[in-house]
Amino acid sequence: MSDPTCLEECVEVFLDRLRRGRRNVALTGAGVSTASGIPDFRGPSGLYSKLSQRVFEIDFFYEQPRKYYQIAIEHIHTLADREPNITHRMLADLERQGLIEAVVTQNIDGLHQKAGTRRVIEFHGDVLRYRCTECHKEYGRPAVDAMIRTDGLPNCDCGSLIRPGIVFFGDPIPMEALIESQKLAQSADVFVAMGSSLAVNPAAGLAMAAHQAGATLIIINKGRTHYDRVADQRFDVDLSEFSQAVTDRLAMSHTK
Asked: Which listed residue (112, 124, 226, 254) is catalytic?
């Protein structure tokens, strides 16, 4: 539980910085989705406590695609079945009010879009889209899941393997997402990093790029991050409590 006085002060500073900025950007990590029942990766009960990191390596996918999909249909594809939480909804509200321009996310669950955020840059892809490794025909999750249940493996009409739209370890970051997010970071007045330890590059490096370009860097995370030393504001608070307090403050300002 966050200290109520500290929480109130954090919200006041946060909204004041956003209102002063013209171009504000948020970067979200796994901590933003934990309140939706999606485990983070490195926490005590995170995905890596249940699954080997090897599952998320591109070499493993191509060497053992059947095994990958057996694991994925139970533990990975289902991430998209979750519902947005208060933090996703708060960010969508900030976008609607013109207080943030875009959300860059390391998450693959699609929950920012579900919450209503329009401009989302998915740095690591998502679990909703799939494509043929040869002809690049695109498939949705229902068709892929049906193939896995029937044949154990999704194959394209051309006979080639279908791969997920997530970015594996060993995959390049999609060029469009990389270029767009770098432009946003370098032109931001305020750059907010939420729910991320800022340990995985190049996504984490966006915070430093924004800082070096002159943005106000705000880090909101329960626990330390790799960029705490350069942050202009650092809020060590529970994300759900913080997001609810921001939402309440925004609602109050509309009723005045």
From this structure: 124
Cis omega (within 30 of 0) for bond into 142? no
Cis, peptide link before residue 202, omega less than 30° from 0: yes
Give the total residue count for the chain: 256
End-to-end CA distance of the chain: 29
Residue partners of 131: CB distance under 8 A and separation at least 6: 137, 138, 139, 162, 163, 165
Q: What is the pTM of this model?
A: 0.92
Is 124 designated active site? yes
Q: Residue 100: helix, strand or coil by DSSP?
A: coil
Residue 57 DSSP code: B
pLDDT digits (tens, 9 = 90+) for 187-210: 999 999 999 999 988 999 999 999
Tokens of 32: 């933003």
CATH superfamily of 39-81+125-166: SIR2/SIRT2 'Small Domain' (3.30.1600.10)
